[in-house]
Specification:
There is one protein chain. The chain is an alpha/beta fold and about 350 residues long. It has 15 helices and 7 strands. Helices cover about 50% and strands about 10% of the residues. β6 and β7 form a beta hairpin.
Length: about 350
């Protein structure tokens, strides 16, 4: 078995050790102690994870609950499971939230604009009625959220300078975090450093960032287990990261396909290969198909493959990220035989 604890690869899982966010966590704790903080950052930067690590009495996704009334209903359902908030006006719902509670408000920029403005004003002014309701608000971009509110007074009371901005993880940070998550969730013999690096590079260039990395790790492990294997291969990661098939193969000339085939063949059992390994494989394929690719044509074709993301150059060498190479080799060889 590869997955020793699959739950630790769930997106909702919050590890006890939060890596690579030490300074941000320190600032977050300081602001939380004052009663309010806004976490800002792109997808996969760990916003919700940090908020859940700090903890709250209720968690609400404001993108799914776009009005003040819906947000308040969801808060009260969690704070008072037996209380029925249906039909009550907003003010009565506010009255039901006890002082001293801490609320996590995720995806605040998903609320309707007018509702957002009034809700932000109301929650930040509860002290005026003798309540202290703490909140950790989350947004993808605090500048855009401020523009949505379009009211300096409301913004200064709601967030002001109590903003913790999360920058995207660097490659080194992502690799460290993914290695830690693998250690928590996978059998130690099921993966190696190259597998972690391949997942890291795939996630690094994806819109989902770290979120994608966790998904790829889980799905690659599931694919290997479905075959009855005890180790994750590079092609398991590529299959998990698979995009639409390479339609541009139809437009490639034989020499171009041969170069692509050489890269794929070199990567058949390897996560990464060197330029020398690619050139050596090209020589083998030239003899096999009786086609000669001169140095100028090779450089031009290889550069095009890099620019079009067919081939990826990372810190560990060259690789293919978006297609399982076994299937890619089969498809190229089939097309080569038809030319």
């Amino acid at each position: 078995m590869i997955l020793k604890d699959a739950k630790k690869l769930d997106l909702s899982y919050v590890p006890k050790n939060i890596l690579c966010r030490g300074e941000e966590l320190k600032r977050l704790k300081i602001f939380v102690s004052t009663g309010k903080v806004l976490i800002s950052g792109g997808i996969g930067t760990g916003k919700t994870m940090l908020a859940r690590h700090i903890g709250g009495d209720a968690y609400v996704n404001c993108y799914m609950n776009k009005t003040e009334h819906r947000v308040l209903e969801e808060i009260i359902k969690q704070l008072k499971p037996r209380f029925n908030p249906a039909g009550l006006p907003n003010q009565k719902l506010w009255n039901e939230i006890e002082s001293g509670k801490r609320i996590i408000l995720d995806e605040m920029d998903g609320m309707n604009v007018d509702e957002l403005r009034h809700f932000a004003y109301s929650i930040s002014r509860q002290y005026e009625v003798g309540k202290k309701i703490e909140y950790i608000a989350i947004t993808r971009n605090h500048f855009i959220l401020e523009q949505m509110m379009n009211d300096e007074a409301i913004w200064s009371t709601f967030a002001g300078k109590a903003v913790v901005e999360l920058k995207p993880y660097t490659r080194e940070q992502m690799r460290e975090i993914l290695a830690f998550r693998a250690q928590e969730s996978l059998d130690a013999k099921a993966y190696d450093d190259d597998i972690i690096a391949l997942i890291t590079d795939s996630a690094l260039i994806s819109p989902g960032h770290m979120r994608t990395g966790i998904d790829l790790m889980r799905n690659a492990a599931l694919m290997a287990e479905s075959r009855g294997d005890t180790t994750i291969t590079p092609d398991d990661v590529r299959e998990a990261n698979r995009e639409e098939w390479v339609g541009d193969l139809e437009n490639m000339e034989k020499e171009e396909m041969l170069v692509f085939l050489a890269v794929a063949a070199a990567c058949r059992t390897n996560a990464y290969v060197s330029m020398n390994e690619i050139v050596d494989m090209l020589r083998v394929k030239e003899e096999e198909y009786h086609i000669k690719v001169d140095e100028t044509r090779f450089k031009k074709t290889f550069q095009a493959l890099l620019q079009e993301d067919f081939v990826y150059q990372g810190a560990d060498g060259f690789t293919i990220l978006h297609y399982p190479v076994a299937a890619l080799i089969e498809e190229i060889e089939k097309r080569m035989s038809c030319h």
